[in-house]
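Project outcomes to date are best conveyed with an example. Our students and postdoctoral researchers have been running inverse folding experiments weekly, and each run begins with a structure described purely in tokens. The record below, which covers 259 residues, was selected by the lab manager from last quarter's runs and is presented without edits.
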């Protein structure tokens, strides 16, 4: 399917690895000029060069921490009027809420709620003026089915989800949509860290824990980041202007509810 995105310009955050990288690649394949953001310069540059080489797309790399005001300024100076914004940053570490301090909560809110909101604040009015805009927030399946040890993530991402539900209905009239993609288990570096933490808690090996989680997923496997990237590319495509304010789970059927 031709996605109608040739020549559009996208800012993709958390893009050197994992799900962000997969979104950047899928957009570059669709003919989008991609500005990729991540903290580690070397890994980001290598990924950006790979993507540019295999797609022929124009790709630029901006090394910065997107959860800081200075980082967002750098990213938005490199690409001041994006047509597409994919927000993404690392998720907070798992733990017990009794040990979390106010600072831990503020850091989680900065990363997983306030940074995406600030990026929307900086870009949405320009999108409205140009009558095209697509914003996708990478959140988590934990928004629909909270995981106790990921309380910082559950709380912060829920705040973002509530905010998006309101704003997304205000912008769609101008062909600016805002949606959240909710990953279940995708085989990335972050996921390996999660498996290791879960294995420690269960006094099992990471390999056993990985196998058990895979078998417990209705699909019988973990997600391939490329599947996530493809869903993202469709959601930002010219065809998806009537989809807004949605929380799309991509979890191999793990969430058991009807809705
Ligand atoms: P990952 O660790 O594989 O990749 C994260 C990427 O984000 C890297 O490129 C990293 O450099 C970048 N990054 C992290 N913090 C950043 C910051 N402050 N500023 C700029 N770049 C930053 O992680 P992933 O698996 O791709 O996960 C992406 C998001 O999806 C995370 O928030 C994660 O919690 C969430 N998530 C992932 C899964 C999964 O199964 N992989 C499941 C649920 C939720």
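After processing, the design step wrote out the following sequence:
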């Amino acid at each position: 399917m031709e996605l109608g995105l040739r020549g559009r310009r996208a800012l993709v955050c958390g893009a050197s690895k994992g799900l962000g990288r997969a979104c950047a690649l899928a957009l570059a394949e669709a003919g989008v000029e991609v500005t990729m953001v991540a903290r580690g310069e070397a890994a980001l540059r290598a990924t950006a060069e790979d993507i540019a080489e295999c797609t022929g797309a124009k790709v630029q790399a901006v090394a910065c921490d997107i959860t800081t005001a200075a980082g967002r300024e750098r990213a938005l100076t490199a690409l001041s009027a994006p047509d597409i914004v994919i927000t993404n940053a690392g998720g907070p570490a798992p733990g017990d809420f009794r040990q979390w301090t106010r600072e831990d909560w503020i850091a989680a809110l900065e990363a997983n709620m306030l940074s995406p909101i600030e990026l929307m604040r900086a870009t949405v009015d320009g999108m409205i003026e140009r009558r095209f805009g697509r914003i996708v927030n990478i959140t988590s399946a934990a928004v629909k089915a909270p995981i106790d040890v990921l309380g910082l993530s559950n709380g912060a991402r829920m705040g973002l989800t509530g905010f998006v539900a309101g704003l997304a209905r205000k912008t769609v009239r101008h062909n600016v949509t805002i949606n959240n993609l909710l990953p279940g288990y995708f085989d990335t570096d972050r996921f390996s860290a999660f498996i290791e933490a879960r294995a420690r808690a269960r006094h099992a090996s990471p390999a056993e824990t990985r196998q058990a989680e895979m078998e417990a997923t209705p699909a019988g496997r973990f997600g391939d980041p490329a599947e996530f990237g493809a869903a993202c590319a469709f959601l930002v495509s010219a065809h998806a202007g009537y989809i807004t304010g949605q929380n799309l789970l991509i979890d191999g059927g793990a969430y058991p509810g009807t809705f």
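Helices lie at 18-29, 41-55, 69-78, 102-130, 151-171, 189-202, 206-216, 225-235. The longest strand covers residues 176-183. The training component of this project remains on track.
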